[in-house]
Amino acid sequence: MMEIIFYPQNGELEPQDVKVSKEFLQWLAGSNFMAVGTDLPTKINIQGEDAELPLIKLEQGNNSNRQFLSDFLRDAIILESEKIIENLGDDPSKEEYQKLTYPLKKLHELRRCVENETYQYLQRA
Fold it and tell me: Residues 57-102: pLDDT tens digits?
């Protein structure tokens, strides 16, 4: 499993990590998710300890990294939902269901973190 981590400003809260499969991360790598923002060395306090990490600032506003990522994730959620409807069938096995819905669950998890203004930074795996 790989992680995409969301950090609050100056260690106010614990970071939120989204664990994703290698395959899902490869899919993200080939998408616009990885094209948004620039990883910059950023000094941040994590649970009382200072660190410098390559982070993307999630600022506010219409043309912000946060807005672009939110829009991308919402569009991807729509496409994944359509894919599930087309491929699920009438009586899927538990494995089929889990395999088809995994990307949708992870996209929603990422979207919730991106849209949560508590998190000010993103670290991509």
Answer: 998 877 799 999 999 999 999 999 999 988 887 788 889 889 899 9
Task: Please state, in angstroms and rounded to a whole number, the distance separating the CA atoms of residues 96 and 52.
Answer: 41
CA distances from residue 2 to 15, 48, 58, 81, 113 in whole angstroms, order as listed: 15, 24, 21, 23, 16
Q: Find out whether 1 and 21 touch, Cβ atoms under 8 Å.
A: yes
- Nearest in space to 28 (alpha carbons), one of 59, 61, 72, 65: 72
The closest alpha carbon to 53, from 93, 96, 7, belongs to: 7
Q: What are phi and psi of 105, to 5 degrees?
A: -60, -45
